[in-house]
Amino acid sequence: MANKGPAYGMSRDVQSKIEKKYDDELEDRLVEWIVAQCGSAVGRPERGRLGFQVWLKNGIVLSQLVNSLYPSGSKPVKIPDSPPTMVFKQMEQIAQFLKAAEDYGVVKTDVFQTVDLFEAKDMAAVQRTLMALGSLAVTKNDGNYHGDPNWFMKKAQEHKREFTESQLKEGKNVIGLQMGSNKGASQAGMSYGRPRQIIS
């Protein structure tokens, strides 16, 4: 990675707006969930955006998190014995987590870019991805989620309904209110505004 100097002008404004989206309370909730999901061996980060970034930067904690959402026989991300120290290996580990998160069901628009985490460009995007992952885990309710279910919103689920032929035929006889039924009313006697003035 190239060294980045200080940002000036518009790029500094953009970066400060991105940094303001980062939520410290959400960070606390996400840390609690990751520790509950993966166990205390993952440790805890220093409080704050940079501490959170350093904790997740090598991709190991993220990989353990996504693996913990699967049954013991099928882990989607291979975790090396020792944490990677080379930059490209760390970025590769993050990329594996992102692929596994998408396979789990996280929508592509909710997935952060590798540089958002690795270079701390947009830690709010990292939080969004983890929130989406947690929401999916709570919604699936397959026994692999650990922690308080109230930490995340459940996703809306399809509620398919089956109707019999007779119920469908009955529905054709009903006039829906959207179609309008004026029950014999007319516009007779209604006037809008003043009548037209004819001046000669």
UniProtKB/TrEMBL annotation:
One of its GO terms (cellular component) is cytoplasm. Residues 179-189 have a biased composition (Polar residues). The keyword rRNA-binding does not apply. Residues 179-200 are annotated as: Disordered. It comes from the Eukaryota. It is found in: Cytoplasm. Residues 24-137 form the Calponin-homology (CH) domain. The keyword Nucleotide-binding does not apply. Keywords: Acetylation, Cytoplasm, Muscle protein. Belongs to the calponin family. This is Transgelin. The gene is Tagln.
